[in-house]
Amino acid sequence: MKKSTLLAPPESTTLLAQMVQRLPLSDTHFRRISQLIYQRAGIVLADHKREMVYNRLVRRLRTLNIDDFGRYLALLENDANSAEWQAFINALTTNLTAFFREAHHFPILADHARQRGGSYSVWSTAASTGEEPYSIAMTLAETLGAGPGKFSVHASDIDTQVLEKAASGVYRQEELRTLSQAQMQRFFLRGTGPHAGMVRVRPELANAVTFARLNLLAHEWTQPGPFDAIFCRNVMIYFDKETQEKILRRFVPLLKPGGLLFAGHSENFSQISKEFYLRGQTVYGLTKERS
């Protein structure tokens, strides 16, 4: 009778175990990741974000078949123009958004647009997957009408993946739960057959919104302007005070006289910059125009 022997695991099983195994993220590598994302995107990563950083970047390492964070960082730093830099930024950018998020802003926007003459223009500086700029566009269409030249919304973001979804204008129907039935019918097309449960922004609304990649830390901004309103909501919380001040200074010449700057619920721009004063709940005007 033959003795039983332990068989070596098949090669595929060994590879799977290596992929599932947790890769070490050293203090040195975490600090370097934090430095690089700050330099490239202005994002400040506190120590408590370490697990988030690991979970997001380890997917890139596995996609690239890299088993060490040091090797991944070397890949980035060996080529300042590598396409992997965009994937790195995309992975570490937080994109929490919803249609008509911070709903109190939209009646203020509507009143402001109603009082202004000419074509009304808005810049959404952190468009994410498109919910904010499309909410702005719906508000302006309801207020000013949807004809050509009535209004325009310029939407930008540093993350190319979310911009791709935003430009497609396709959403799950449950993502539109904050919209009225009238808004659903007027501004969206329902999917049928294999696309049941999905909706698409109607072309007449989508045509009023343009999307472009933009890094708020870039030396030059390519967006058109000036604007009647700028939405910069829940963006500054990821930057340090020096970066916040710099960005707010650059907004000043991009606002038309009497223009509005909208902030997120946890942001206070008048404490960061003397250029802006609080006009309403997280809505700001230019201090130089204050009577």
Q: What is the secondary structure topology, with strand pairs?
A:
Blueprint: H1 11-20, H2 27-41, H3 50-63, H4 69-77, H5 84-92, H6 105-115, E1 120-124, H7 131-144, E2 151-157, H8 160-168, E3 170-172, H9 181-187, E4 188-190, E5 198-201, H10 203-206, E6 209-213, E7 227-232, H11 241-251, E8 255-263, H12 269-272, E9 276-280, E10 283-286
Parallel strand pairs: 1-2, 1-7, 2-6, 7-8
Antiparallel strand pairs: 3-5, 4-5, 8-10, 9-10
What does this structure look like?
It is a single chain. α7 (131-144) links the parallel β1 (120-124) and β2 (151-157). This protein has helices at residues 11-20, 27-41, 50-63, 69-77, 84-92, 105-115, 131-144, 160-168, 181-187, 203-206, 241-251, 269-272; strands at residues 120-124, 151-157, 170-172, 188-190, 198-201, 209-213, 227-232, 255-263, 276-280, 283-286. It has a 7-stranded mixed β-sheet, with helices on one face. Strands 3-5-4 form a 3-stranded antiparallel β-sheet. Helix content is 40%, strand content 18%. α3 (50-63) packs antiparallel against α5 (84-92). The N and C termini lie far apart (101 Å). It is built from 12 helices and 10 strands. The model is unreliable at 1-9 and 11-19 (pLDDT under 50). It is an alpha/beta fold and 291 residues long. It has 2 domains: 11-92, Chemotaxis receptor methyltransferase CheR, N-terminal domain (Chemotaxis Receptor Methyltransferase Cher, domain 1, Orthogonal Bundle); 105-289, Vaccinia Virus protein VP39 (Rossmann fold), CATH 3.40.50. It comes from Mixta tenebrionis. Residues 18-289 form the CheR-type methyltransferase domain. InterPro entries: Bact_Chemotaxis_MeTrfase (IPR050903), Chemotaxis_MeTrfase_CheR (IPR026024), CheR_C (IPR022642), CheR_MeTrfase (IPR000780), CheR_N (IPR022641), CheR_N_sf (IPR036804), SAM-dependent_MTases_sf (IPR029063).
